């Protein structure tokens, strides 16, 4: 059962034909979702943003798995699912290239001042005289030789590093789950968060939203950054304290930001971030390239079918919790 009308291709939907029926449940709130679940008793629930709570999971006697459409799964009550012996999977890696390219596009847009200079030309302010009239604060800066700090070095962060290396940037990484011997680093320096924030010219965030990462970039962290540095966030909005970010930009504590995600989405029309010319925004579409959407749709169907066939999903996010609760033994669910 799919909720919140995420993107699915005909090919992805066709894969369900041999294992069961796929139905859409159009719901406006949790009450309507629970009613739909009780009516259909699904074995799988697929959701992109709609909250899948313990109450929703309890409404189906047959539920075997919840698959998050996309990388983020903060809308799923993973703890409740683990207590009930329910798989929670995502589509990790399916949109990694898209998000990485988008994150670096924001870096380029900020460093080359693309948005403000585009507006400068289109509004007729470009003079043909020797004095162009372009404010010095809008002069582009080179990426070559600059330091890029990557927070989170998974599928997306590592791809950003690959792109940045082509521009001659020096790369440093903070990831508490990596060791200096990890082959993925391939010579890249692993540092603490404070050091990364202090040294980087650009800081890009690539972490999942959970209890540990919510608000991990706040006033204290922003104050550690160079006043010439930029913050890039294409992960989840609540990872960054938005109020602290607005204050830091207003006071000139940092040079600006590139954001694809926000604390509240869609962004409110009175959000102060809309008023800065040194902030580049996009509507949570970093992972939404044509190629990424197609890959995500296929991965969702493949993960759901694995669960329906009694297999462990490849992108299982609650493996340790299921093992701890005695539901998962080896590669089978009890």
What's the helix and strand layout?
Elements: E1 2-3, H1 10-14, E2 24-25, H2 30-40, E3 44-47, H3 54-58, E4 65-68, H4 78-83, E5 87-89, H5 96-111, H6 114-122, E6 147-151, H7 155-166, E7 170-174, E8 189-190, H8 193-199, E9 202-205, H9 219-224, E10 230-233, H10 242-250, E11 256-259, E12 279-281, H11 290-308, H12 319-324, E13 328-329, E14 332-333
Helix pairs in contact: 5-7
SSE string, helices as H and strands as E: EHEHEHEHEHHEHEEHEHEHEEHHEE
Oligomer: single chain
What's the alpha carbon Rg, rounded to whole Å? 22 Å
Stretches with pLDDT under 50, minimum 5 residues: none
Major β-sheet profile: 7 strands, parallel
Estimate the helix proportion, in percent: 25-40%
CATH topology name of the largest domain: Rossmann fold
Assign the CATH superfamily of the largest domain. NAD(P)-binding Rossmann-like Domain
CATH class of the largest domain: Alpha Beta
Distance from N terminus to C terminus (CA atoms, Å) equals: 23 Å
The number of distinct helices, counting runs of at least 4 residues, comes to 12
CATH architecture field of the largest domain = 3-Layer(aba) Sandwich
How many runs of DSSP E, i.e. beta strands? 14
Please indicate the percent range of residues in DSSP E strands (runs of 2 or more).
Answer: 5-15%
The order of strands across the largest sheet is: 8-7-6-9-10-11-12
What structural class do you assign from the helix and strand content?
A: alpha/beta
Q: Average pLDDT, to the nearest integer?
A: 95
Global outline? globular
Q: What number of domains?
A: 2
């Amino acid at each position: 059962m799919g909720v919140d009308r995420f993107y699915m291709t005909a090919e992805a939907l066709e894969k369900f034909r041999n294992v069961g029926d796929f139905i859409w449940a159009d719901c406006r709130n949790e009450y309507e979702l629970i009613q739909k679940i009780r009516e259909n008793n699904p074995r799988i629930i697929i959701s992109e943003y709609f909250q899948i709570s313990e109450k929703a999971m309890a409404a189906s006697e047959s539920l075997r798995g919840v698959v998050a459409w996309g990388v983020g799964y903060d809308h799923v009550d993973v703890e409740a699912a683990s207590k009930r012996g329910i798989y929670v999977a995502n589509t990790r890696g399916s949109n990694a290239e898209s998000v990485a390219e988008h994150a670096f596009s924001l870096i380029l847009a900020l460093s080359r001042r693309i948005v403000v200079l585009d507006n400068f030309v289109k509004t007729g302010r470009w003079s043909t005289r020797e004095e162009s009239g372009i404010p010095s604060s809008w002069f582009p800066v080179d990426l070559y030789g600059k330091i890029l700090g990557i927070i989170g070095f998974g599928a997306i962060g590592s791809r950003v590093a690959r792109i940045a290396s082509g521009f001659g940037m020096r790369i440093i990484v903070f990831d508490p789950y990596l060791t200096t011997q990890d082959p993925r680093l391939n010579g890249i320096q692993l540092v603490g968060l404070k050091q990364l924030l202090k040294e980087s010219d650009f800081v890009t965030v690539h972490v999942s939203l959970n209890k540990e990462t919510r608000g991990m970039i706040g006033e204290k962290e922003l104050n550690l950054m160079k006043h010439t540095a930029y913050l890039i966030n294409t992960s989840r909005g609540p990872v960054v304290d938005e109020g602290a970010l607005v204050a830091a930009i207003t006071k000139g504590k940092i040079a600006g930001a590139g954001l694809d995600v926000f604390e509240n989405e869609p962004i409110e029309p009175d959000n102060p971030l809309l008023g800065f010319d040194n902030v580049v925004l996009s509507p949570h579409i970093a992972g939404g390239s044509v190629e990424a959407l197609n890959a995500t749709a296929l991965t969702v169907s493949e993960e759901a079918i694995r669960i329906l066939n009694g297999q462990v999903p490849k992108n299982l996010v609650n493996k340790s919790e299921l093992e701890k609760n005695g539901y998962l033994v080896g590669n089978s669910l009890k």
